[in-house]
Task: structure prediction
Amino acid sequence: MSDLTPVVELEDVSFGYRAGVRVLEDVSLRVDAGEFVAIAGPNGGGKTTLLRLVLGLERPTAGSVRVFGWAGARSVDGARIGYLPQRARLIGEAPVTVREVVSTGRLAPAGIWGPLRRADREAVARAIETVGLSDRADSPLRTLSGGMQQRALIAKALASEPTLLALDEPTTGVDAESQESLGLLLGGLREQLGVTILYVSHEFGAVEHVVDRIVLVRGGIVYDGPPSGLPGVWHDPSHTHA
Result:
């Protein structure tokens, strides 16, 4: 991929889950390397579907999706994409530690059946340090706050040393203070690692001051620009966008 090739490029993309019902219509979007883009919109507006199209989890009904210049994320080395899915859940009451969860993010580089190599263990340690959990690396996840658990899941996504980090509703169920902390963390990751970030949420107050652009999706893209350009209630970070 050259420096001028977009990390993500959608051209005239439409998608429907069943005949005659379109979730997205004529969507075109370009995300360049190093950008931090929030994809916002009401529930059912198509924002998660848009992300799933980028990740190759869905195929467009019409149009094209290219990631790192390739036709669909499934054509791309999986280790280049770190993904935190919507409402990611931890392993109940199992005594799994932060380090063990983050280590699963190295399965693609190490191979499903292969033991973690020194380079894998070092990448896991860096990811844990990056999210500020080094002192809790061997703590059971169930003993951590919701905000810290989300940090652990972000570290799991970072463990593969991705070029693109995709987060779907990462602040769901997390208190306001932890949301602000996660927003600052993600802004720092972009500056520190140069990673491109796609942040999908119905509420973007936590990242409003660190994103480059907000893409507002309501069946199509109805706004694409800086947070300051959003009209009315969408520019109020205290408002929950249902």
Summary: The longest helix spans residues 176-193. Residues 234 and 241 are 8 Å apart (CA to CA). The helical segments are 47-54, 98-103, 107-110, 118-130, 146-158, 176-193. Strands lie at 8-15, 24-31, 36-40, 62-67, 81-84, 164-168, 196-201, 213-217, 221-225.
